[in-house]
């Protein structure tokens, strides 16, 4: 580099001396990879302000700068790099370089094979101003050499070629240097090197001094290099003859490694098609194999050929045609050798693949078809030509030949087999089961003689093949053995059956049958076992099974049942099972415990040993139970819902059970523990209950209680977090109208009920949740179910959504119910109304799934209503159609599902749904015989159809059930005939004796259905111990002392006024405070409450059966008051007094209704919405209906107004009470009470024009609404001559 710098400095200084000015600096730049000229320009502009760039061959550029000093700066830098690409820079002597270059020859690069060769002259002329030229194709397929016939503006040509595209291709141009070499071609077999040298140095050839001579092909081509390029130029321009041979001499360029003629390359000549001697049928067989066809076409495509068949020729010929476009530049490179290349490609394919034909009859082919077709692979394809009866093999020659040899052998063998088969016979002996087949085969397989025999498991038969007489003899042997077989079901208990499933039956047979020479097998039939045995061994086999298998069943007493629920039992039970598994003496024993029974099944004495151990443990662990009395039911609810005593460490450590007792008179805790721990357990529980305290707060200001009541759910939840229980009561509430309910009987066992209410509160085993196709919980029913059931019920639909299979309209899926009370939750995909998807199929699927899950009840909303835009009547039609189809299913009649509930909280929807059901009438309801129309009582067992919808042929007298209901206060009273133990209500009334143990009649049926837990409660309530913890509060005047229950928590006392229901206790010996009352039976009019047990209710109200009508009325009032305290909305009452009381039905019903009327007048806000009076006796039921019919004739209102007959008022014939009417779609109701207690969307206030009337009803409304409404009314100003205005009520 220093030498270059010194040279430049010397050169520049001398140049300045000579010329007196700076010269232009020119550099030659090279790079190993392509670079953008824009990047080059940016790079060199850092050295000079005036820079120009011109391409100089491939990856070479000439850089011109304004003066030489700038070029010197570039050369002074040791390394040049652009984006990781190294540059080589050197000073470019343009004059010296120009002298070496041929001014008329250039190389243009950047072309592709697709370029149109006809456009190349046009492009060259456009860059050279139309100069005459010739061009030649070079061997690299991307370049051409251009030779001009005259001098041109070289710089302009170079610039235009570099900047102008050809068919969107960048074209680079470079100049060729003068060459001193020529290529000599000709027939030079007899010409020596000396002769060539003499000739090309002589004047005759206008040659000169030769530098070298190099043969390319000793007979036809040689390269001659001269000392000067001018000599090579002269020699190339002459025609040459030597030794009688004409020589072709062209300039040879070593940089291109080829010679240039200086003339435009002519279009090559070649055949367009090549006829190939190939059988077209052969080709067709090749093309049957897709892989071979693809290989053929790909190979020919690489040779620029395509194959076709000339079918017009005789015979048809196979043609190879050039697939290359003749107008492209690639033609110059492909055409000279195309014919030979195409023929070679085709010949190679024919040598690789071949076709073989093997003659085979159709029946032979059917035998060997599968084996032949299994040989198909990527290399060989086998098929059958049924016309020529030949097997056709196409594929690689070697592999196809191997397969051909195998198939030929197979054809010969099959031919021989067929010939043999024609002279033999076959017979089969079928049996009924696989086990029978195996057993029979073991008996006869060695007795069949010289006959080919086998077992056909697919057809359950023994197959015999051979000569006619031998096959007949073998068949007789099989028949005789089969006649001596017997199949008999073993008389085993269900536990023995389950036990046998736990071990290998074959081993049992080997251990106990084979040693005793019993020929038999045991067959598993799912729920039972059968023995397959030779008839002579049947008694011995049954005796052996009974001797080996033993069973002991231990029926547990209630105390023993409780023992088995404890941790100690689980430990003992687990250790026992470990012993069973570990010791060989009892290894063949199975111990199972379920509910009230322990079953031990196994072999011999092992069963006796285990039985002794279990009985010994149970007899030593009898539990004891004592009661810890509580002061109120509120205490019991607090303990049950908030305290969770069972998880307290000291209680948990003693392994005791604490259960609240729901006895009404004296709520208590039942403490159960082992007998030796019971005293300590009671002491620990009392320590926890002694810390309970109670406070009462009254909110009497307007709006206070409404705010608290509105937010009571949040308050109760917060209280539960603090282990507190909140109770709300409002004596001034005016209850809403009773909810609507309507039932009808579908066939003899299925009841459909339409009711108003919350679906999450229904006592149904299956709940239906409607969802849209997005599986979003975006409808009220789904949101309510999600709120109660918890987020876990979303798992199933979310999983489907994540898998890309969201719930579609018409689909149903089953899900765990989460925290819902049901057993199963069904998600139903509900369509949107008008989309063409129907509701009936999805409803039917819900019912079918409930039946398959063996559920007895299902609750669903009116599917399709509200969010999904279905009219209520359309929903009703679809649901009813699905129910009827479900009931009439002949192939799979319903056996489990008996109750179908349609539930909705919207009274209007429920009313319209019921109306639609009534309008549908009775035809087809039973689904089997539409000509037999049952009475209204059969189809609508609780509420009959309206008169205008019933059968015209029916008698004009309405059935008794038409008067089976009435409204007293806000309680709907309904008469029902049936079994009271089947009722689904909050409370069921039981008329019993003073000991609460009457086990006959209706009382006996209720106690039996309720179960032992209710019987135990009744036994305790029948022998009462009452702990009265009362302290004086206020004044004491004899028996008129005011008492307040006090519940202690260390040093704090909280007071709550509590009414003590002492009228249920009799025979008191003393009454000191505090005191413990001695035992005593229930009074004659006592009423107490127990749990619901196994009945479909929360409570059973036990009343001592009255003996007269006054007693019925008094007892009914106590029952109803107790229902209020328990917040019961529905109850069922038996026909009180009509049995053992000997009271007439009319007097009985009159007394019961009188008790309800008294209760309604004394209670401002009753929670009881419906009361069902249930009678099992038909005569009593008919008498009750007659009484209702007579009473319903009396007008409900004392002062009835006269209504014109033309008024569109809906009467009781449509099911409305007498204090309600319906005009079009609006229902009007007359109520007595304070308007400020109404819970509605709007309240109308009749006031003065200034909106400030403070007297009468208007004043009461303003006072209850508060200052906010009063201020709003002031802003509204005078009301004169204005329409009614609306203010907002803010609490």
From TrEMBL:
Its main location: nucleus. Keywords: Glycosyltransferase, NAD, Nucleus, Transferase. InterPro entries: Macro_dom (IPR002589), Macro_dom-like (IPR043472), Mono-ARTD/PARP (IPR052056), Nucleotide-bd_a/b_plait_sf (IPR012677), PARP14_KH_2 (IPR057043), PARP14_KH_5 (IPR057047). One of its GO terms (cellular component) is cytoplasm. One of its GO terms (molecular function) is transcription corepressor activity. Residues 739-921, 960-1192, 1215-1291 form the Macro domain. One of its GO terms (biological process) is negative regulation of gene expression. It is found in: Nucleus. This is Macro domain-containing protein. It comes from Scleropages formosus.
